[in-house]
Each structure stands twice: as structure tokens, then as C-alpha cells.
């Protein structure tokens, strides 16, 4: 199942700089692991925003939910999920 997921990151301005650094490093490691495993197909920066647009290919809704809840930055994100269906005009 394919899902488009938009993640907007909202970090508290007064967050401890060491916590911020470690959270961002953990987020990167987590995201790259899922990209290598094939479940996180696309990760794009929304230009000019602290947000990304991602595409996940996962077995079901519960797996997507698990992946999102385990994001190190999850407590600091606004997330919107859009299930994707095939467009009738898509080629290939
Ligand atoms: O910077 C972001 O958009 C948040 C994020 C998700 C995966 C990652 O490495 O950073």
C-alpha cells in the first residue's frame, strides 16, 4: 500500500541544543534505514519549509502507523497521511 505523508517539524525554540542534535541524528539514521529497507520510497524537502513530503510503501495501515510513531521527531511533527490510488492517466 502506498501513502503520501507530509511531515512538518516544529521544534521548540528553547530546546536543548544537544537534544536537538541527537534527535536530528537519530531521525536521519531511522529514515535512511527505512529507505534502504524499501519502505520509505521518497523523501523530499518542501522548498522553503521545515517540512518534507514522503512516499511510503508498506504492508498495511498499522505498519505505517508504527513507522510514524517510531520517528524520533514524532513528538515534534504535524503529520498528514494521504492513501494513494493509481491515477487512470498514469503511464507505466
Ligand atoms: O527534516 C525533516 O523533514 C524531518 C525528517 C524526516 C526524515 C529525516 O531525516 O528528517
- Mind telling me the C-alpha Rg? 14 Å
Shape designation = elongated
Instruction: List segments where confidence is low: pLDDT < 50 over at least 5 consecutive residues.
Output: none
- Please give the CATH architecture: 2-Layer Sandwich
N-to-C span: 17 Å
Please report the first level of CATH classification, the CATH class: Alpha Beta
Number of strands: 4
Full CATH superfamily name: Dimeric alpha+beta barrel
Taken as a percent bin, the fraction of beta residues is 25-35%
Please, how many domains? Answer: 1
Structural class by SSE content:
alpha+beta
- Into which percent range does the helicity of residues fall? 25-40%
Instruction: Give the oligomer, counting copies of the same chain as homo and different chains as hetero.
Output: single chain
Number of helices: 2
Query: Which ligands, by name, code or SMILES, are bound?
Result: the ligand O=C(O)CC1=CCC(=O)O1
CATH topology tier name: Alpha-Beta Plaits
Largest pleated sheet: 4 strands, antiparallel
Mean pLDDT, all residues: 98
Q: H/E series, N to C?
A: EHEEHE
Strand order of the largest sheet: 2-3-1-4
Amino acid at each position: 500500500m502506498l501513502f503520501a505523508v507530509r511531515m512538518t517539524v516544529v521544534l521548540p525554540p528553547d530546546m536543548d541544543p544537544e537534544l536537538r542534535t541527537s534527535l536530528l541524528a537519530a531521525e536521519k539514521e531511522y529514515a535512511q534505514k527505512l529507505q534502504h529497507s524499501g519502505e520509505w520510497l521518497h523523501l523530499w524537502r518542501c522548498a522553503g519549509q521545515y517540512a518534507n513530503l514522503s512516499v511510503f510503501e508498506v504492508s498495511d495501515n498499522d505498519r505505517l502507523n508504527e513507522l510514524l510513531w517510531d520517528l524520533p521527531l514524532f513528538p515534534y511533527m504535524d503529520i498528514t497521511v494521504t492513501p494513494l490510488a493509481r491515477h487512470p492517466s498514469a503511464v507505466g
